[in-house]
Design a protein that fits this description.
alpha+beta; two-stranded antiparallel ribbon
Length: about 140
């Protein structure tokens, strides 16, 4: 009932097709913001500030940027799966079943600790096309 009420004005979410949870959440946040009464915005409880730090590899100078977000998009570190043996066995069995036109085995999903996803989120990332204001040119950044 809740989903039907929230989705009635949205063509994608009012259908019976599978929808993306992230898109639905952002649709809900937008709906709350548009229909709020008074000066308080209830969706502000989901807002947070993301600070990005990029260091130029040549000058070692650092640039900080901030952005407001509602979602923390964590990378899924497949190499941190705790059931790697099961995943490998499943993949072999699945390929064999497909090759022999047999029913597929029961799906095995990767079990990845939340802490591994947080760790992957905070790992340094190489930025090849970083514009360095100190160099007035593109440089590598981290």
């Amino acid at each position: 009932m809740f989903k039907a009420f929230v989705s009635k004005s949205h063509p994608e979410f009012s259908s019976n097709r599978q929808q993306d949870a992230q898109e639905f959440f952002l649709h809900l946040v937008n709906l709350v913001e548009r229909n709020r009464i008074g000066s308080e915005n209830p969706s502000d409880v989901f807002r947070f500030l993301v600070e990005e730090r990029i260091q130029c590899c040549q000058t070692r100078k650092v640039r900080y940027t901030e952005r407001v977000d509602y979602l923390m998009q964590l990378p899924v570190a497949m190499e941190a799966a705790t059931n790697k043996d099961e995943l490998i066995a499943y993949e072999l069995t699945r390929r064999e079943a497909e090759a022999n036109r047999r029913p597929l085995p029961e799906l095995v999903r990767a079990k990845i600790p939340f802490s591994a996803c947080l760790q992957a989120f905070s790992e340094p990332e190489n930025v090849d096309d970083f514009w360095s204001s100190a160099l007035q040119a593109k440089s590598a950044g981290v």
